[in-house]
Amino acid sequence: MFLSKKELVGLDIGSNTVKLLELKTAKKGYELKNIGEAVLPRQAIVNKVIDNYDAVSETISSLFSDLRVKTRNVAISISGHSVIIKKVSLPKMSDNELRESIPWELEQYIPQSIHDVNYDYQVMPGETPEGNIDVLIVAAKKDVTNSYVSVVREAGLNPVVVDVDVFALENMYMMNYPESGGLVSLVNIGASVTNINILKDGVSVFTRDITTGGNLYTEWIMKHTDAAFEEAELLKTSLKSGEAPPEIEPATREFVDMISGEIKRTLDFFSSTLWTSKVNQILIGGGSSGVQGLRDTLSDITDASVDFMNPFRNVAYDPNDFDPEYIQSIAPKMSVVMGLASRKPGDNK
Fold first, then answer.
1. Per-residue CA distances from 21 to 13, 14, 164 (Å)
2. CA proximity to 255, closest of 229, 285, 290
3. Which of 60, 224, 266, 301 has its CA 20 to 30 A from that of 162?
4. Structural domains in the chain?
5. Three-class SS of residue 239?
6. Tens digit of each residue's pLDDT (9 = 90 or more) over 229-246
7. pTM of the entire structure?
8. Sign of the CA dihedral with 265 first, then 268, 270, and 274 last
């Protein structure tokens, strides 16, 4: 929805930061044109709901100005409780019949009126053993979607694409890992939401948003050390560089065990109820994916190969324009915004 024919910029409006990424088409794919992030004032966005419109709008506007981005068209995304994603199996029917059936199907899964959500759907490739078609239905609360659209417009921008975080991850993966097949789980551990998208041969077969993330880790550091929020955030950063004090180790263990356990339960549910085999490959990303011990713990309890997503795997950049160390340090946080930046007006997903 909200599509035009012009180039666009990926804009990931997270709970703690706003991330921007702009690509340009090169002979062998994509080349990085612009990248950056800006920290949002605390509590400006709570549980993926915008509480301080002015602060968010000003942060976005300043980021575009500081990076001298001229393109006004942007792709944004939403996630969390406001988004419902369901795959349903339906008899084969005409396009018109399917269009009329979707609202009736959707009403079974949403607590509110169909008039209170924006929704879209996509027919999945192939057919079921029974000869039916699988249809992926995505719905988002209008008030939440409209709030993100409004805050972007307040910043003087034009939201031409509104996506969902888990599908932006999928787009990033297909850009950078086109040769991959089989089952793979993409896990993006953000500040307040952890996105999980399980792909089979590059096509999404299961998604889930876990409504917790790195902010909980910060809260636990504050609890164990009596540190203020800003100090706890600095301690969290020092942990990733291997210089953290021992007093935050209990908080680290709690967070690693909690988030790894949630991911494992999601994968176990998928394997036991929806699929005949287990996920043996996991790619992790997001601002809290580099917490010490997380990768090894997740690999141990899932018996899967765990690696970090690389959203720049197939994206070239000029080291004279972009410091490679900076790109390497910011890469874990850029998977969603990379997927948004790769969107083309008119895409179906």
1. 12, 14, 17
2. 290
3. 266
4. 1-82+143-176+313-349 (3.30.420.40), 178-310 (3.30.420.40)
5. helix
6. 888 888 887 665 555 678
7. 0.90
8. negative
